[in-house]
Design brief:
Elements (H helix, E strand, L loop, with lengths): L10 E6 L3 E10 L2 E11 L9 H16 L23 E6 L5 E6 L6 H9 L4 E7 L7 H11 L3 E4 L9 H16 L7 E4 L6 H8 L5 E3 L13 H18 L3 H7 L5 E2 H15 L6 E7 L3 E8 L2 E8 L7 H7 L2 H5 L8 H13 L8 H23 L17 E7 L1 H4 L4 H12 L3 E8 L4 H7 L4 H7 L5 E9 L9 E9 L4 E7 L3 E4 L6 E8 L14 E6 L5 E4 L11 H14 L3
Parallel strand pairs: 1-4, 4-10, 5-6, 5-7, 7-8, 8-9, 11-14, 14-15, 16-22
Antiparallel strand pairs: 1-2, 2-3, 11-12, 12-13, 15-16, 17-18, 17-20, 19-22, 20-21
């Protein structure tokens, strides 16, 4: 029986990813929302089906078999709202991250001001900048026009001009965009998003509005000192949705099931991280979420309800590995392997994974290769994401992560890892957190679905964010400072629930695991030495931390930040093997 707080009892979430399509069912059990089951199937956007509907159908059929619920009728149509015989669901939310990123041309005034703000906006969704047009661009107007015609972008983002600022220079470029739209065939004309000087909105409407689909948003750079990305994000999500409805077979049916609310998976994931950060608003730490997919990686950081979202398309553990090769050397990847290998072996594995993204590691060496690639993906993604974090959250050392509590990881590579220690290893080496934080695994990959569901049933999001769905991997304490290897840098006194105590002195350069049984409480008295910092008020400042045992207890990572690896390949592989052994692998 639904309570007055529950708007919809059964909620179906359909998440179409680059590799896998998932159908997730939530229902009310004993007055509380519960995750019931998930059905999975390969995404069918590519040959031979070339329609995402087939994968959606297969995922729902598997979900019905597992859960015993009947969700679609004999004509394979979703029943929503449910019929009197119980067939169907109350609400459906849909998410999408398959297909290539939006091919985008960015138009603005100054490269280091408006163009930078435009890039920051595009970084919040699945978009790829193919070209930029700005005042410092030395190409002639005809050359700029030719570039647009040759690229045939799906989106042209126009930014630039502070409020009441330059207009003629902007209008010159807007007219070039309008001419390009006029010359392109109607079915190949791009979506246009204007997020520049609002005084030009009417002129932009006159120049472009009748030629193609025009969207307007508040200025992303209203003044030289102010950047406002968030108001334009909503319009960008709408543009992404319109583009995918037009280009992806089966997307319109999916969109209709959710009443026109098809949502980019990254956007929905960001909503969940933002929500959690509001719950931690009393803390001076942020909340970090990472999602490693087949073609893209998303980093979402929430600071007291303010979200910083960074999406790296063409940067995942499938087809996205091609993008990783553009940003990383083979040596960057080889350093994370617990055995000696060579560039040819890594390259062969990468090309195989790109060609067969559904494949799973067949040997321990393949698994280690996949985890090494994931670690490097996280390294590249977090370094880019830090640039968009609020200035107030950044550290004095730009290569150090801000204080976070908790850190949440989601993605197939984490959920399918055989051992918790392997997950922790990827996250510790890839993200290199500092201070005291809890690392949690979204073991059923629900985070994005919960963000999408918040729009139809906020209570579902609140009640599903619990330990049954998010596995506590452990509390990590990372002291930061300078000392010679082997110097004691941290003293930890552990007081267990049964009254026993344990004191551990941690040396610089070491990785330690303190056993705390799963779900059992313990209190830690943490005292940094030699002016090391654990985020409790400054160098040398310690304090008490109440923890709940996770899959690996408490992990003390005193290996240094940024993490230094031995230069010799043999020593480096041996070091990686030792760290994995310490973490139970």
């Amino acid at each position: 029986m639904a309570t007055s707080l529950i708007d919809a009892e059964t909620v179906l979430a359909i998440d179409v990813g680059a590799v896998t399509t998932r159908a997730i069912l939530f229902d009310v059990v004993e007055g509380r929302y519960r995750f019931l089951a998930v059905g999975e199937a390969p995404t069918t956007l590519d040959a031979p089906y070339r329609n995402i509907g087939e994968g959606v159908q297969l995922a729902i059929e598997q979900l019905e078999q597992i859960s015993g619920y009947v969700i679609i009728d004999d004509s394979s149509t979703l029943v929503c709202p449910p019929r009197s015989d119980g067939v169907g669901v109350d609400q459906c939310v849909t998410l999408f991250s398959a297909s290539h990123p939006l091919k985008t041309v960015l138009v603005g005034l100054l490269d280091e001001i408006s163009i930078t703000s435009g890039r920051n906006l595009l970084n919040t969704t699945y978009a790829s900048v193919m070209d930029t047009i700005h005042l410092n661009d030395r190409r002639s107007a005809s050359q700029r026009l030719d570039a647009i015609l040759q690229l045939r972008p799906e989106l042209i983002l126009i930014v630039g001009g502070t409020e009441g600022g330059a207009s003629q220079s902007m209008m010159d470029m807007i007219e070039t965009v309008g001419l390009a739209c006029y010359l392109l065939p109607k079915d190949q004309r791009p979506e246009i998003l204007f997020a520049g000087n609002q005084q030009l909105t009417e002129a932009v409407q006159t120049a472009i509005g009748k030629l193609t689909s025009l969207h307007t948003a508040p200025n992303v750079r209203p003044s030289l000192e102010v950047e406002q990305i968030e108001p334009a994000q909503t319009r960008l999500v709408s543009v992404y949705r319109q583009s995918r409805l037009r280009q992806v077979p089966g997307a319109s049916d999916l969109d209709s099931w959710s009443a026109g609310a098809l949502t980019p998976t990254a956007t929905a994931f960001g909503r969940t991280i933002r929500f959690i950060s509001k719950e931690y608003a009393h803390s001076r730490k942020g909340v970090l979420g990472v999602d490693v997919g087949g073609t893209a990686t998303t980093v979402a950081a929430g600071f007291g309800g303010e979200l910083s979202l960074t999406v790296m398309p063409n940067h995942g553990l499938g087809e996205g590995l091609a993008g990783l090769l553009e940003l990383s050397s083979m040596e960057d990847i080889l350093r994370w392997l617990p055995f000696q290998s060579n560039a040819d072996s890594v390259r062969e594995y990468i090309y195989t994974k790109i060609s067969y993204p559904h494949s799973i590691p067949a040997t321990p060496e393949d698994l280690a290769m996949e985890h090494a690639l994931t670690t490097q993906i996280l390294q590249v993604a977090i370094k880019r994401a830090i640039r968009s974090f609020p200035v107030s959250a950044r550290r004095m050392q730009p290569d150090l992560l801000p204080w976070f509590e908790p850190i949440i990881a989601t993605g197939r590579v984490f959920g399918h890892a055989p051992l918790p220690g392997q997950i922790i290893t990827m996250l510790l080496n890839g993200l290199q957190p500092v201070g005291v934080t809890t690392i949690a695994l979204d073991q059923n990959n629900l985070a994005a679905s919960l963000g999408a569901a918040a729009g139809v049933s906020p209570l579902l999001t609140i009640q599903a964010l619990d330990a049954t769905n998010f596995l506590n991997l452990g509390t990590v304490i990372t002291p930061v400072g300078q000392a010679t290897p082997g110097t004691p840098v941290l003293r930890v006194k552990v007081s267990y629930a049964n009254g026993s105590e344990n004191i551990i002195d941690v040396k610089n350069g070491s990785l330690e695991v303190i056993p705390v049984p799963a779900a059992q409480a313990a209190r830690l008295q943490v005292q940094p030495l030699h002016r090391f910092d654990v985020g409790m008020g400054g160098p040398g400042v310690g304090g008490k931390v109440d923890v709940v045992g996770g899959a690996l207890g408490v992990i003390i990572d005193a290996r240094g930040r940024p993490l230094a690896m031995p230069q010799d390949p043999a020593r480096r592989a041996e070091q990686m093997k030792k760290w994995l052994w310490t973490l139970g692998c």
